[in-house]
Specification:
Length: about 300
């Protein structure tokens, strides 16, 4: 009985020792945390944090309205241009329905022949049929049509207008951001602006504390230059609240200066003379697949209702 009492007393003594060691560790850690805590001056909030955010919001709203003023209204297409495009669309629709065409054979072949002849004579070109030109071959003069040259990218006024509009948009977006970044870097360099309310890993330290080389500072502290970049990428929601559901006219690639190939690369003008020649060959090829959907429709209806036996 005495040995069991001695063992219990030794266990309690060791447990109290471990508990004391754990409490001393917690006290030491809390004292170190309190020693390394930072307290920001309220003047930093009033003269660094708020001015950066306010200036960026006002510049973003001003940029939105400047872009609206610089946008060019799309020029309406002329009647010959629409006619040129619709002729190609009609031929494509005729070929797409050739295997189960709703047109009877006389109508299908008539439309197909008329389109092929029109494509051969270049009737649907927006500049009209080419004028004949005298060409001398082997001592004899012959009249051959002089087709217009393929349109060039830089000779098309509409393409040049689109390129200038994209250049103006990039200029309006990038110049204010460069000026604001220089202003923040010159006047607010080295300031600790704010502390985030949630923990971050060490991988965010170069992004959150740009311009401040302090390896022992907590990752949640944000420098003034990093606060500028956070506002730069995160104010789109604020713009939507201020401007309604309107498009701000600026996407992420334009804000970062990276060109978007889908928008900055202008479309190459189409040579409808070559397209018409290719479409004529496609019409001739698809005529072999033509089948009228109403062929033997009487026999099919009678078989459906049991008036004729199935073959």
């Amino acid at each position: 009985m005495q040995s069991q009492i001695d063992l219990f007393a030794e266990f309690c003594h060791r447990r109290d020792g471990c508990l004391c060691l754990f409490l001393s560790y917690i006290h030491h850690s809390s004292s170190m945390a309190s020693a390394t805590s930072l307290y920001l001056d309220p003047s930093i909030r009033d003269w660094v944090l708020f001015p950066i955010s306010l200036v960026m919001i006002l510049v973003g709203v001003l940029r939105h309205y400047v872009l609206l003023l610089l946008q060019n209204k799309p020029k309406p297409q002329t009647r010959p241009q629409i006619r040129e495009q619709r002729a190609l669309t009609r031929s494509q629709l005729l070929r797409a329905t050739a295997a189960h065409s709703p047109l009877a054979p006389p109508f299908y072949h008539t439309i197909s022949q008329n389109l092929k002849q029109a494509f051969t004579d270049s009737v649907y070109l927006k500049d009209g049929p080419p004028a004949p030109k005298k060409v001398t071959k082997g001592g004899t003069d012959s009249d051959e049509p002089e087709f217009p040259q393929a349109p060039s990218l830089f000779s098309d006024p509409s393409q040049m207008d689109n390129m200038m509009a994209q250049f103006k948009t990039q200029t309006v977006v990038m110049i204010p951001q460069m000026v604001i970044m220089g202003w923040v870097n010159f006047f607010f360099s080295g300031f600790v602006a704010i502390k985030l309310p949630f923990p971050l890993t060490l991988g965010f330290k170069p992004m959150m504390q740009r311009g401040i080389s302090t390896p022992d500072m907590d990752t949640r502290w944000v420098s003034s230059l990093s606060w500028y970049f956070l506002n730069f990428f995160g104010l789109n929601g604020v713009y939507r609240l201020l401007l309604g559901n309107e498009d701000t006219g600026v996407d992420l690639q334009q804000m970062t200066g990276m060109p978007n190939m889908a928008t900055t690369s202008p479309a190459v003008p189409q040579d409808y003379n070559k397209l018409f020649k290719q479409e004529k060959e496609n019409l001739e090829f698809d005529e072999g697949f033509y089948k009228w959907i109403g062929e033997d429709v009487e026999d099919r209806v009678l078989r459906k209702y049991g008036k004729l036996p199935f073959v």
